[in-house]
Fold these 4 entries.
Entry 1:
Amino acid sequence: MMTTTHVLMAATAGVALKRQGRSLPMKWLVFGGLAPDLALLVLTGGYMVALQQGWLPDERLFGTLYDTLYFTNPIWIAGYNLLHAPLVIAALIGAGVWAMRRGALWGAAMLWFGVGCAIHTAGDIPVHHNDGPLLLFPLEWSVRFYSPVSYWHSGYYAAQFGVFETLLVVAMLAYLLIPPLMRWVRRVVSPTIEQREYPD
């Protein structure tokens, strides 16, 4: 999935919980939805600069060299999987729960950051054909789920998934934005109606 979709998924989950009366640190949940992709974004940005500066062999951006780095370079593997790996995420959530039970102020932030990472990874694993998160990282560095669907690879239903993702984003934006928009409209319209009904 696109990074923005992951962030929206975390935000939607948080707003849904808040509307049910649950108190939670939204910023940590949303940051957890974003954070798993940050390392790869930085590495890819550095790779693009290196290509433009001529420091690497001349080839297209997502070519053989990029794939080699992604699948074999320990820095790239660790960077991408550090916050995508289910075992690491379970450890984050567990540490957050442990800290909260002991009254540590950072416990809730850690818990909900981990939940945001979990939402991100749960969205990623089903839509990567052969390049998804490592399931047993850091204990094992090669086991992945080979999905029949890829969000980017045209040979694995990327076009169809793109339609689904677009509809999902529209639905999440509607869920997030329509209620506050309606509250704003009521605040603006109600005084106007009262002024018309009860002129000075």
Entry 2:
Amino acid sequence: MGRREMQELMSDLMDNPPRTYSGALLAAIGVALLAAVGGLFWSYSISSKLSATQADLAEAKQKNVQLAADLRETNARLHVTTEELSRSLGITQKQMDDRAEQIVAREQAETQRLESAQKQTAAQVNAVQSDVSSVKTDVGGVKTDVAKTQNDLAGAMTQLQSIKGDLSDHTSLIARNHDELEILKHKGDRNYYEFTLTKGDKKPVGTVSLELKKTDAKKAKFTLVVYADDMRYEKKDRNVNEPLQFYSGKDRGLFEIVVNTISSKNQISGYLSTPKGAPAPAGF
């Protein structure tokens, strides 16, 4: 019997009381029994609820214990992960420090190399400047020598003789010996070929050929034949240092022969002078 049913029974007894004493007693006993039974049921109900609550509490405690264990395990894992992360960061930092040291060392090496290269370049520049100064000094000396040579050449040129050749109205500057011939060569306006001829020999000189026919050492005279451009020119009884002139070549340039010496062995020595633009013989 539930609580609500007992309440309804007691309400019914109060509304309809028994008419006799025995009935009243029975009624009271019944009410008491009903109250006792209701109390038992209420106690049982309370006990059931209390047991259920205790079970829930025990389950909650167990869950709390499990949660605490899980929390401890999570904390432990987190601690391990933190240590691993710290260790990893420590290695990375070491690598970064090593890398920084390497960069600094390389920069120092590059700086030293650059300083060494700059010193070497400066030394080379100083050496070049010294060489340039020496060259300037040498050039100054050369200029002085050239000026002196030019003065000497000018003085020597005044000693050369201008003699009229065997062609009309043409005067030539002649050399009377080898040294004067060297002066004419330095003048650079003509080509010069030295020769020595023996009587009876025909010898190529420059682009022509010469043949000595006769010599007279006492009178310093000689006779010479010139072969040029399929032509024959005889220069008979000519004097030493006399320009013997003839025209030769495609452009008909003026050629000159000067005999400087006549020996007692029927030999003569001298030179052939040709225009600067005249053809040169093979081998020149």
Entry 3:
Amino acid sequence: MQYEMRIMAKDFSTTGRQHHLESGNEDTTTSTADRIIEATLDLLKTRCLHSISIRDIAAAAHVNSALISYHFKNKENLYNTVLESQFQAYRETVVSAFTTEGDMRQTIRAACQAIATFHSSNPCWLILYFRELTNPSPAYQSIIQPCIKEASEKCVAMIKDGMQSGVIAPTTNPRHVTLSMVGMINYFFMTRQIMQDLALEPAHNVDEYIDFVCCTLLKPVVVA
């Protein structure tokens, strides 16, 4: 997606290119684009896209505003690139952890840990995801839906394998387990700030919380 946006930006005017040269920015195309993406992502933590101007993004990224048009053509393409990068990271960290390989008790716990690790490293993801759920942009169908569909299918397959392996009750609806597992961990990170502000547990005990989630979902180990 990022490369597509750069191709679309090739029709940027000569004047814009001159601004690029006059900006004195010696970063490569990739590093400049990445700085703009990171600045946009940081602004989106507290503001919606419509309340953020090109000037705001340029100031946050410490670049000439013409560079945003040069790299992304317009704000909507930039937003799509930001979403694409976030959801691709979700695929690489979380969706890849939804597997049917190995000891399923350990595999499911590793998947829970992958979700937690992802949210710790990508605190804006849940903000963007729930904004798109409540007020979808055109990117909802092209970026959000395919990623969540893939994640759901792979997680359900993992849970079904867990049932066949005997670590999850066989009478449980696998999609209910999927929603419960992902939802419990997502909610932990959605509410973590207020838990920290109010000094409530388990704000600082992510691993302990994951243990709780696994104990809730998985059948107890029977010792002979």
Entry 4:
Amino acid sequence: MSTKEERERIELLQGTLDLLILRTLLRGPAHGHAIAKTIEFNSDEVLQVEQGSLYPALHRLIKRRWIAVEEGTSENNRRAKFYRLTSKGRKQLKVEISRWDKLAGAIARILRPAE
């Protein structure tokens, strides 16, 4: 596999996590651990979000201005960073959902072709 193909493959995986984070933050601000647990819970524990993937994704989304971060206090009275969806992020979420639907539809057509 060429370097370009590897980068594109990684981007697909990162893009999927980005989409899940944006969708999770649609409910409201959350700290990193809560984002990961929400994704895991809502996927019936099928998706496990590792810190090594989560925090680079959060930083990437901040850089793109799709999310913003604020300092706060967690439920257990600890300092935490809370991430929230920006208006740009809300718009991008719609784009990403549309892309995901298109990709999922294409894969479904290959897996279950019409007879």
